[in-house]
Amino acid sequence: MDQNNTLAELQWMQRLFNTVSSYIYVYNAREQRNVYANRNMGDILGYTPEELRQMGNSLLETIMHPDDFAQLPLIFQHLQAAADGETVAWEYRVRGRTGEWIWLQDHMTVFSRDGQGNLVEYVGTVQDITARKQQEEALQMFKAMADTAPDGFGIADHNGVLTYANTAYRAMTGYGDDLIGMRFIDHFSPERQPEAITAITETSTRGEWRGLLHFQRPEGTQIPVESTGFVTRDPQGNINAVMGLFRDITEQQRSEQERAMLQQRIIDTQRDTLRELSTPLIPISDEVVIMPLIGTIDSNRAQMVMEALLEGIAQHQADLVILDITGVSLVDTQVAQAFIQAAQAVRLLGAQVMLTGIGPQIAQTLVTLGVDLGEIITYGSLQAGIAAALIEQ
Predict the structure, then answer these.
(1) Which residues, in sequence order, are bridge partners of residue 27?
(2) Which CATH number fits domain 3-134: 3.20.20.70, 3.40.50.1360, 3.30.450.20, 3.60.10.10?
(3) Do the Cβ atoms of 122 and 26 come closer than 8 Å?
(4) Given this model, what pLDDT does residue 315 score?
(5) Is the pTM of this model over 0.85?
(6) Rounded distance, CA 21 to CA 164, Å?
């Protein structure tokens, strides 16, 4: 090949290398300088050729991050020990002209050695990996945040196989690191799998789903979780990932149950208190008890009156119960029938009922209604009834 052809080939290769986005150089380790570069490093870093020349031999020390610059001797040791054709790669930071740190990846390959095997020249290919590093840092930050979150978070592929699970999710299911590679549906009990299938189907078709699921831990314990599922799609609209958020509501449900039980106890206590207030039973002697009634008597209260009467007679062993209706505002057929039924029930226990407080209006109502009070003793006032009851004793 003549000299002209050689020169043309070199020029052609020079133009070819200049079209490559990577920075390609040949470095002479003895002279500590580049003997070839396809483009100016300043194009990557934003420096002018004059600014690079002014830095001179202190270029790397000036622009390279101190931590990375300190690794240079070790990198050159690896390069010196590398076999011919072997590549030594490392990543480092350099400061751009505007002050920002730029991440570079350098692949270095031995180009020539001297007779003693010492490194003379090596070829390097440099790529700007700042965007990739930023993505990696963002991903690491996301993972750090996800792993400190109290709620579970997981990612599955389009086949439903889990590819990521944060710390809370791994602990929640009880599978730990074994969760990765499992199908999402695998940590549900057989009877709970239909609800999981529904969640997956609706998430896939609608793009989002919210509801209650129940994980089953390896030992069989079921964990109720408030769940949110959503998907990401590729540009063609195909699902490439299914993601889920899960909150363990075991303690919440337990608290709600305890709160419901407490509320029920309060209701029961209020009911019992109301019952005692609405059907008070007052003993005035060993054989006589009084139940003064006030207000309106409906079917529920009439039942309470009968229960209180029967319990009071059994407790006090009374022979006579005085029902005072002085404070009852209305007596109708239902109320009168309740009195008759109460009297009949009391008689079955061997006692008798006395009805007091019957005013003219109530007496007229009872006559109009044709109510037969039967063997119930009646008095117009409580005072008269008590006097009669005590005399009979």
Answers:
(1) 34, 122
(2) 3.30.450.20
(3) yes
(4) 84
(5) no
(6) 35
